[in-house]
Amino acid sequence: MELADILVANAVSTFQNVSSKKRLLQGIAEQAETLNGLSQQRVFEALQERELLGATGMGKGIAVPHARMAEVDRVIGFFTRLDEAIDFDSVDRQPVDLIFTLLAPEDAGADHLKALARVSRTLRDEATCRKLRSTDDASALYAILTDTAASQAA
């Protein structure tokens, strides 16, 4: 599974003036409603419920919030780069500025895990993260994330 399979160009954004994890998740839920016709409230609740099970901050400024929802028919992703890092209850207690959100069908066990693994491998690559942090252009961020050679090396 490649990131281009789950991420479309208009699902990549930079957010400014986001002050909390809650506000970030609300912004992502708004995107999910606009781009995918999902209920903003339902997406927000699903992401919040997952965060209550354990924070999805991976460390090194990266978070991968994710949730399973009956309303979703395939794994879909959203990437966000923040202009200022926020607290995300990460394992290393460092603030987060790179966020890749995944929404998956309730019964998408293997696909959900494959997507999480691909996102994790991509964002563990320090060179990729440096590139992502060096631009606030959404199309450049999308190109960095979906570059097949880079994602296979990650």
The topology string of helices and strands comes to EHHEEEEEHHHH
CATH architecture descriptor name: 3-Layer(aba) Sandwich
Number of domains: 1
The average pLDDT score comes to 90
β-strand percent reads 15-25%
Brief characterization of the structure:
It contains six helices and six strands, in the order E-H-H-E-E-E-E-E-H-H-H-H. It is of the alpha/beta class and 154 residues long.
Overview of the structural elements:
- By secondary structure, the chain is α/β, with parallel strands linked by helices.
- 45% of the residues lie in helices and 22% in strands.
- The protein is built from six helices and six strands; from the N terminus they run E-H-H-E-E-E-E-E-H-H-H-H.
- The protein has helices at 21-36, 40-53, 109-124, 126-133, 138-146, 148-153, and strands at 12-15, 57-59, 62-63, 66-69, 76-86, 96-105.
- Strands 1, 2, 3, 4, 5 and 6 form a six-stranded mixed β-sheet that branches.
- Strand 2 and strand 3 form a beta hairpin.
- The radius of gyration is 14 Å and the shape is globular.
- Residues 149-154 have low confidence and may be disordered.
Topology:
Blueprint: E1 12-15, H1 21-36, H2 40-53, E2 57-59, E3 62-63, E4 66-69, E5 76-86, E6 96-105, H3 109-124, H4 126-133, H5 138-146, H6 148-153
Parallel strand pairs: 1-5, 3-6, 4-6
Antiparallel strand pairs: 2-3, 5-6
Helix pairs in contact: 1-2
Task: List the main descriptive attributes of the protein structure presented here.
154 residues; alpha/beta; Mannitol-specific EII, Chain A; 6-stranded mixed beta sheet; 6 helices
